[in-house]
Amino acid sequence: MSESLQNLSAHLSELFADKIQHSKIxxxxxxxxxxxxxxxxxxxxxxxxxxxGFEQLSDLCGVDYLSYGDSEWDVGGSSFTxxxxxxxxxxxxxxxxxxxxxEGKRFAVVIHLLSxxxxxxxxxxxxxxxxxxxxxxxxxxxxxxxxxxxxEAFDLYGIMFNNHPDLRRxxxxxxxxxxxxxxxxxxxxxxxMRYDEExxxxxxxxxxxEPRVLVPRTIRDDQRxxxxxxxxx
Amino acid sequence: xxxxxxxxxxxxxxxxxxxxxxxxxxxxxxxxxQRADPHVGLLHRGTxxxxxxxxxxxxxxxxxxxxxxxxxxxxxGYVLALEKMLGIEAPIRAQYIRTMFDEITRxxxxxxxxxxxxxxxxxxxxxxxxxxxxxxxxxxxxxxSGARLHATYYRTGGVYRDIPDSMPLHEKSRWYSDADIxxxxxxxxxxxxxxxxxFTQRFPGCVDEYETLLTxxxxxxxxxxxxxxxxxxxxxxxxxxxxxxxxxxxxxxxRKKQPYAMYDKVDFDIPVGTNGDSYDRYLVRVExxxxxxxxxxxxxxxxxxxxGPVMHSDHKITPPKRExxxxxxxxxxxxxxxxxxxxxxxxxxxYAAIEHPKGEFGCYIVSDxxxxxxxxxxRAPGFAHMSAMDELTKGHxxxxxxxxxxxxxxxxxxxxx
Lengths: 233, 417
Known about the structure:
Helix content of chain B: 40-55%
Largest interface: A-B, 56 and 68 residues
CATH class of chain A: Alpha Beta
Number of helices of chain A: 3
Oligomer: heterodimer
Radius of gyration of chain A: 22 Å
Distance between the termini of chain B: 47 Å
CATH superfamily of chain A: NADH:ubiquinone oxidoreductase Nqo5 subunit
Structural class of chain A: alpha/beta
């Protein structure tokens, strides 16, 4: 499997040369990164080329890298700490996750392709250029199944897709505002709804629940496990 | 006065044939569908966002609630992705248990599908027949995990516990007489494995019964044959997987092609259809039930002869035994760290897919080295199937929409997530 991935990786770098910004084989999976401008061209070849033959799009999803690598509990310090740094604030301006100050590319779209003919998978990663208006070309014409996956990425992350036939919200409520899976969108949301006895209808109000962290997010470099322990199985 | 021809029809969101909360906006020309626009998301709970706020182990229970009729298969996809990133493998016995429960789950799922599909199309009796067998399998779920539906039985590095030695018995109550109790407990005298084996001996006969009711039934065939035809090329284009793909004649099953757990050690066949219509998919799923039964039988035989651990022994990931914890300092620390913080995954990303009863169920995990996922994406087969709804129903009659929903085996827990 991994040998075939290496062959594929070599074949791809021959085909696309410098269009592949980054290529990596990890955990028996091949990931290639391309720029938004090259997406359509690379995707078409990936489907049509005989060696590639990725005729099915398994999955397409958005990722928001805004708070990548942030932890709520600093484990590097020498003294004991209390745990969570401080409570979440409601206005969405959390400590390290200020979208304005964020440098680098925030949104990425990850596409998983499957070749049934060659029995392999590939992961295609595209970072969007503009953090305020992430825009990509739609791959719906190449893989028709991408339609709803792109709608989902638009709904949850606000990533726009050029030439998508029908880019509407899909999972959130009618009339929903915001993109809930963005890292600066609070887990509790912004509004809650209830039935109002006086107005005799369902009304929306600002959320009344306090956001809380039960288990702080902790990053440990040592990982604390021994992957070599496969011998005992 | 111009004649008005096309009109829109609102189907659902609380229609009994919609298998949950599906709202379909249908553009109709008389009784013929011109365009179908499914509105999904009415059951959206933000599972993936919730998972980002919890240590890895605490999200296993959420997986049960995705496709809530094939619970353990969802868990399997998730723990497989975690194990891939951790670089560990579950002990062989745990993998056999997983294989067996994946197949039990497949039968559970297909039984609900055949019952509901039959009910939609007008075969009332099927529902009662299917639920009779489902009851036995849910008792097996209960025996190993304590819960009939949302088991949370699979864990990173194995399964929660070994299969218990005794099958729980029915007790006398105001609902059951002595005669009932004797009848109900007849095959529960032995171990859980005995009970499962007894089931595998009975089950082929049950499938024969379903087939007697449906396969050559004139009404069943009139409603299913040539409805919702998908060509193999279109099926691949639309991202269809599982029985939806095999019904069109594509030989693709992850259990054979990219084996996980113990599927390369057990003997089974993959049925494929020829026409790609609803009837072929029905035949494929019925045969899948028989094949699952075969796999379960082989797993039972293996599990009988081969005792062993069912959990990985690295207590940085799996909790230590209770007795150890009481007497051993290190075990106590391990338990404390697991309970308060969980385990961290190395930085990176992984996609693990399994052959779920409905198709390819994949979990894509991005980790930044923390004890919680940075991003978890669940690739639900039903989501892709649902998006093909428009193409499958175009040109069919209104009544065929119900058949197409049935044949896609839609469950909204996984479509909406």
